[in-house]
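Example 3.2
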Amino acid sequence: MECNHNHAADTEMLAAILKHIKQLERKIDKMAATLDEVLVDVAAEATLIDGLSTLISSLKQQVIDAKGDQAKIEQIFADAEANKAALQKALTDNTPVPPQEPA
């Protein structure tokens, strides 16, 4: 019985499969790195949210503690407005602009 098996074709096919496997591995590594970046960003955002919560609680307590001291209350609100402007600038500067759809 004669076997006409083409080993060269098998070798080429194996090489092509290995090439695709390596490409997939690179894509998986890139996705894993991207997911790690997302996790870091989420953790940073949680820290910022905690900071904002602390700021808001602090402002509330400052107003309660001012008890009718108008100058102190005005200073608290002036500081809050300055914080608001800084927060708004940070959000604007760090928020990507969504692509506009063609009209």
